[in-house]
Amino acid sequence: MTDQNTDSERRIDTAETDGGVAEPDPSSAEPTDGESIDDESTDGTVSIAAPDIGADAAEQVQSVLESGMLADGPEVRDFESEFGAYCGTDRAVATSNGTTALHAALEGVGLEDGDAVITSPFSFVASANAIRLAGGKPVFADVDLETYTLDPADVERVLAERDDIVGLMPVHLYGLAADMDWLSELAEEHDLFVVEDACQAHGATIDGKRVGSFGDAGCFSFYPTKNMTTGEGGIVTTDRDDVADRAAGFVNHGRDVGSGGSYEHIDLGHNYRMTSMAGAIGRSQLERLPEFNRARRENAAYYDEQLADLPLETPTEPDGYRHVYHQYTIRTDDRDALAATLDEHGVDTGIYYETPIHHQPAYETVSTAAATLPNAERAAETVLSLPVHPALSERDRRTVVEAVRDHFHSQ
Predict the structure, then answer these.
(1) What's the chain look like in SS3?
(2) What is the pLDDT along the chain (411 residues), one digit of tens a residue?
(3) CA distance 47 to 357
(4) What is the domain partition of the chain in residue ranges?
């Protein structure tokens, strides 16, 4: 591991138990800045997201501000080391956001102009955008309608039809990992790189192995609504030194990673660096990530039980997988009317995503834009995300469930 953690008092628990993580006793968790996650909402609205930064992070940011080392300083190096250890990878490269992490990872694996990469049409547009920004061509394969992640069987179909595919970018959507066993087998068989888009899946696992450690590189976003945040930020995880070095140079104006702050630039690059303030927040948030994910899973389990008898599809968690519920996404033909009912009850919802990427105006000229991808299109018409964040109170959860049940029982 490079960039060893220099703060001996910080500990990120990397142990795995039963497909999950070794998580602290809730009674021993650090106090949050303000109300605890069990306190009841006071504004009458159940929000779709509620970032919880906490007092410790604020103190760490204040320390960085007082140090004067605000850009890409020691806190960023320590965060890289700690997050890589959490994911089980040898290296990690922090960036300014999830999109720049994806871009840097693709540069790191050596994507060249015109190279074709298979990815999901049912994701935030940044997944496919990053391929185009790196000079490649996104090629869409359909998703599995139960998991909303790339369908390996459809990836096989695309590979049989095309001979220009150089890589795969599976998206771990909503907090659930894609079928990495099957996709990794396809990648090995066809000599493809794999860049995981794990921007919504911090801590998700398959058989105890965390996302971000399956492919040649993994990418995470730390946008405020994610399972953990740095305000804005991203990171690339990898076991490959060549990928890490190229990514690190790319995010720092193409500098040689061993040259420090020199003005010798060996390649083209961008300023995609993470700030030291973001790194400080990230270190604090990473310590609390098991707590956050546990709360999300508890909220999801409550919904699973309370909504089981209704005519809608709740999220799936395949055997051996650990879902971390960035979103709790249900599926129903009555999506729009249900969303309106929830709004009347003061419950925020989200549709992620109403337009699949291959139907976006910016993708009209992409070669597979006209492809028929029925599962992605069906999902776009029927998905609805309910509040599942850690700050939900018992009353919030009851309000959500009662509103959903009232909607279907009134029909």
Answers:
(1) CCCCCCCCCCCCCCCEECCEECCCCHHHCCCCCCCCCCCCCCCCCECCCCCCCCHHHHHHHHHHHHHCCCECCHHHHHHHHHHHHHHCCCEEEEECCHHHHHHHHHHHCCCCCCCEEEECCCCCCHHHHHHHHCCCEEEECCECCCCCCECHHHHHHHHHHCCCEEEEECECHHHCCCCHHHHHHHHHHHCCEEEEECCCCCCCEECCEECCCCCCEEEEECCCCCCCCCCCCEEEEECCHHHHHHHHHHCECCECCCCCCCCCECCCCCECCCEHHHHHHHHHHHHHHHHHHHHHHHHHHHHHHHCCCCCCECCCCCCCEECCCCCEEEECCCHHHHHHHHHHCCECCECCCCCCHHHCHHHCCCCCCCCCCHHHHHHHHHEEEECCCCCCCHHHHHHHHHHHHHHHHCC
(2) 333 333 333 434 444 433 333 333 333 333 333 333 333 444 679 999 999 999 999 999 999 999 998 999 999 999 999 999 999 999 999 999 999 999 999 999 999 999 999 999 999 999 999 999 999 999 999 999 999 999 999 999 999 999 999 999 999 999 999 999 999 999 999 999 999 999 999 999 999 999 999 999 999 999 999 999 999 999 999 999 999 999 999 999 999 887 766 888 989 999 999 999 999 999 999 999 999 999 999 999 999 999 999 999 999 999 999 999 999 999 999 999 999 999 999 999 999 999 999 999 999 988 777 788 999 999 999 999 999 999 999 999 999 999 999 999 998
(3) 26
(4) 53-285, 290-409
Q: Which two tokens stand for residue 346?
A: 């003061």
Domain 53-285 and domain 290-409, same fold? Reply is no
- 290-409 is classed in which CATH architecture? Alpha-Beta Complex (3.90)
How far, in Å, CA of 121 to CA of 356, rounded?
6
Q: Are strands 137-140 and 193-197 parallel, antiparallel or unpaired?
A: unpaired
- The architecture CATH gives domain 53-285: 3-Layer(aba) Sandwich (3.40)
Q: What is the pTM of this model?
A: 0.89
